[in-house]
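Fig. S4 source data, part A: sequence.
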Amino acid sequence: MPAGADKADGAAVHSGGLPTVVRLCLFYGAIYLSSGVSLPYIGTYLRSRGMSGGEIGLILALPLLLRPFTGASLAVWADGFTLRRTPMILLLIGAGLGYAGLLVTANLWWLALAWFVGQTLLSTVSPLIDVISLRRARTEGFNYGVPRGTGSSTFIFANLAMGAILTFAAPTVIAVWIAVACFIGALVGALVIPSERVHAEGAKPDRSERWKGLGDLLRDRTFVLAVVTAGLIQGAHAFYYGFSAILWRKQGISEPMIGVLWGVGVTAEVGFMWFLEPLRRRWTPERFLVLGALAAVVRWTAYAFQPPLWALFPLQLLHALTFAASFLASLRLIEKLTPPACASPAQAINSALSSGLTLGVATLASGPLFDAFGARGYLVTAAMALLGLGGAILLSRPANRQIA
């Protein structure tokens, strides 16, 4: 990158470079090349390696269950760097090496270790880049949903491409794709992430001060209620992430059509992020959490009864609410509740619960539920969404809105 092309807190268009929003679009697109294949198809890959439903659930759950600890630790570690982009690049390289380990052997514990390393490191990148994106969107006046939605668009591309590839290639290609995609993400990140300083004032607090800030967040009851509520709504996707492709295949739905179904859901997510920004600004995040939880109760209950292909399309459109609306609402709520010095740990904790602990517990339970009940396992995640609805209603009370 040419000298002077970037500044720590630069303007929207950098000298000799690209606008911030374009840079962020490129990076989100790069990192979602990996999750666009790993989320829908890792169950298929592990099944091809001889894993049972319970073993798949165990492998997928381990990094999620430990994310409250690994996510917080990695976020505190990341705040020890001068520039925010440096730890993201290192995390992506490490994730690529971890995912490559999936190719080494079909041993259960080795696969669990390789998936743990890859998924733990990759999942930390998203909350770190969200900190930059949310701040730049606010100060430079662009819609955060544009770069984040671009990542989801790349998810659709990767998802559909892998569905087509699997019609003629062995499932090994799944692991190869997600590993290579992480290395691509590291390269793109080195080229395009703005060189924003972690601590704008220039002085880095020592590690004990960073951990103290994290402890203060965990003693805030409204903050904890917000992350637990978001975690329940997002965690309710667990059975869908792990076993939807397997269940749809049992219904006679082809691999390319499974890719299309996932694509419909993520397209709805992108549309929400790109085109409903005026509504998002008018409505409170608490209202969107309520809406997302209601949609989740409906969606997962319906999936428990294996609806026909034509009915799956409108149900997949509910992903705009079950994922996108509740995800964006949680980011806004956490940003409002958190002092700037704790932005990275706060978003990491939010991610650790919403796509970590609750998702991990649900994923661990999903394997045995799938083995025992098949599609009826969705009823458990519908119950999780119902609990999330209760939390969202509590957050909507006037006392909590004033605190937020």
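Fig. S4 source data, part B ends here. Confidence is low (pLDDT under 50) at residues 1-16.
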